[in-house]
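Much of our argument rests on the idea that a fold can be written as discrete symbols. Part of our work consisted of pairing the sequence of a single chain with a tokenised description of its backbone. No coordinates are needed to read the tokens, only the vocabulary itself. The record that follows shows the chain in one-letter code together with its fold in token form.
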Amino acid sequence: MTESEIRLAQLAQSIGRARRIASGAAVTEEPAGYPSLAADFSQTKSAAVSEDGGSFLKSQTVSHNGDCLVSLLASGSSGNAAFIRCGRTCVLIDAGISCRRIEKGLRRFGYALSDLDAVLITHEHTDHVSGLPVLLKRTHMPVYTTQETWQAMGNKILPYMDRFVRLPRRLSLGEMQIVPFATSHDAARSVGYSLYHGDCKITLATDLGCITPDVMTAASWSDMLILEANHDETMLRNGPYPYALQQRILGNQGHLSNRTAAEFLSSLPRRGMVKVLLAHRSEHNNTPALTVQTMRDVLTGHGLVIGQDMLLRLASATGSVRFLNGGTL
């Protein structure tokens, strides 16, 4: 870690310690590696689970007392885009839906394309970048991603080469500090992102074939977490997908199952209640009810109380839910 990263880690640790002292909880030291980076990107090219299965979330939003807003404008195999505002700084993570849908989603919160400071790309798959060319045509903002991901997107983004910014080890963007981390997925060089603003940490970790130490480190101590819960394994194995595709999804470079996501959450270091958006749910190999039931079974089995230790919400392609400061719905 650089000196500045160490200072950031120490600040986060002191905030966590102060929170626990204020709440009367026992104080233990958080790991010195928080926040840590998976890869050096500069050196290489009880009742808080929504069970609405029909109209639950075209735009899933959480607001936090660190003056942060997190919204999934879309989530799933048909398209993904996340809008995150920290203070006066706004970013889009992925652009896998049309520019028109992105505009519509932003307007819901009183924002426009012109308010975006940058777009961050996790990887080159169509459901994460299909709207990027038109978005770049309509705006002048930079695109942050890995060199490998930019090249893998091909000719459709060549006219916008001047917008490409290769991901650094850590990025200072307005009022945000952004730390990318490596993920295990069948893409050129996929990443997730942790964003810091004041005492708030937000992490996006989707399209995960498995939980690597890098992902665990990145997600630890997050206040808000966007986490993949893609499929139910039994439903996938008995579903319409051919065997080869099933194996790809189940593999270490595929997607995260409900159960694996729940086990991960149960072992995640936390500071107070974590707000979790369960994202990238398969339309064919999962249901809201299965996701909710698996989360409830696993988390309660580990002694965690939903609504006290974790607040869970399901993301999908339709509907909306919003948390205001202090957790108001």
